[in-house]
Amino acid sequence: MTDPHDPSTGSGPDSLTDDAAAAGVSRRGLLGFVGAGAAGLALGAGAGLAGGVAVARAADTGAGASAYDFYGTHQAGVTTPVQDHLHFAAFDMMAGATRADLVSLLEEWSYAAARMTRGLDVSATGAVGGSPMAPPDDTGEAQGLPASNLTITFGFGPTLFEADGVDRFGIASRRPPELHELPAFLGDDLDPLTSDGDLCIQACADDPQVAVHAVRNLSRIAFGRARLRWSQLGFGRTSKTTAAQATPRNLFGYKDGTANILADDREALQDHVWVAAGDQPAWMTGGSYLVARKIAQLIESWDRVRLAEQDRIIGRSKGEGAPLSGGNEFTAPDFEKADAAGAPAIDMAAHVRLAHPAHNSGARMLRRGYNFVDGNNDLGRLDAGLFFLSYQRSPEQFITVQRALASDALNEYIRPVGSALFAVPPGAAPGSYVGAGLFA
User: Fold this and answer.
1) From the CB of residue 57, how many other CB atoms can be counted at a distance below 10 Å?
2) What's the CA gap between 52 and 55, in Å, rounded?
3) Residues 295-304, buried b or exposed e (16+ Cβ, 10 A)?
4) Which residues are 93's β-sheet partners?
5) Contact present, 27 and 120 (Cβ < 8 Å)
6) Residue range 312-341: mean pLDDT, rounded
7) Tens of pLDDT, residues 282-295
């Protein structure tokens, strides 16, 4: 079977059925095609959904109407072209929740996600099709909006497998050996209320309301079984996953993600992103590990630094994005080159030097970060920064690079305030759910 998210098969967006698209069917108009009621929020309903609506690998003609299939060998939202907006949320299972509660939650989340990524309500009755005497299944703020390239990606935190020495769900023995709370790093000022979590949802879309709608409705489905621990909105992607995407800029004004792993680099994905068949545990094959880090940027301090010093700290020019050793944005940095005074052209403490694979035993990651601005703090300064997201075959790749950044000159202007690690299982097959292999 062809994997719709495998870069070797292309990465074009899906569309709704040709007949429905030609008829101009809206978000709710396709509900009748699916034939699955609100009571079918589980395994069988997922199969009905997959069989009832064929998803083609082609863009819809309407602006923002393209969609990605939820099902596949890998979860969407990793190599998918990075969308413009993010709503990320971490959850904790409720005290007293059972293994059956966890499984049913993942089943229902997968069913709802498969619908929402097609531009549908979370159920056939949706926002307005149910009884007027009962709360609607869907909150309704996405009515009339297209799918907007929505992807929904699920992850499992270390505490899902064991918390305070307790195996709550009978899965401690199946915990990935590398799935542990990240170690403390120099400069960390972490808030435990915005770190970690049993489960996570990464919702990315080209319309912020579509992403928020996804997390809002998945949170409602979790009621009584899991509670929201923390969440983060992001805008303005700070990476790219296809060559067709322009390199974006972070809030310091520098191009970010120039050397990111791209979706068509099959070899790099196999080596650095996807868990391989020989890795342990077997149920993670085709999955990845997600690091989420909320990094506050000291905007006002940075804005007072002269341009030449900003370039020195980053190791690239602010305009072109070229390494200070010369060339253009995509020229490989020359860490041996000296400037006119005989000093390294790229400073020994420059971010580019310390983060480069050449100085980290070849460690690479696929990044999908976003800018954030959460208003201002009690000092009247911008509460802003980078919500860093990276996918890697092993958490050790991130740990290696982060430890190398201990002497980064950029550390004077940033402060990590949130941190989490999640195991991202492989994608679900039609008729199943994300994480099913864990419970097999």
Assistant:
1) 15
2) 10
3) bbbbbeebee
4) 226
5) yes
6) 97
7) 999 999 999 999 99
Q: Nearest-CA neighbor of 148 among 117, 114, 124, 127?
A: 117
Query: What predicted TM-score, i.e. pTM, was given to this entire model?
Result: 0.86
> For residue 190, what are its two tokens?
């972490």
By CB atoms closer than 10 A (0-12, 13-18, 19+), residue 348 is: exposed
E strand or H helix at 19:
helix 18-22
Q: How many CB atoms lie within 10 A of CB 104?
A: 17
CA gap 40, 49 in Å, rounded: 10
Per residue in 398-432, pLDDT (tens digit) is 999 999 999 999 999 999 999 999 999 999 999 99
CA–CA distance, 377 with 415 (Å, rounded to integer): 14
For residue 243, give the amino acid letter: A
Q: Write the CB contacts of 161 (distance below 8 Å, at least 6 apart in sequence).
A: 167, 169, 171, 172, 174, 175, 179
Report the pLDDT averaged over residues 322-336.
Answer: 97
Least confident of 50-64, 144-158, 208-222: 50-64
Tell me the two tokens of residue 224. 């009584």
Domain ranges of the chain: 7-297+421-439
Place of tokens 């899906």: 14
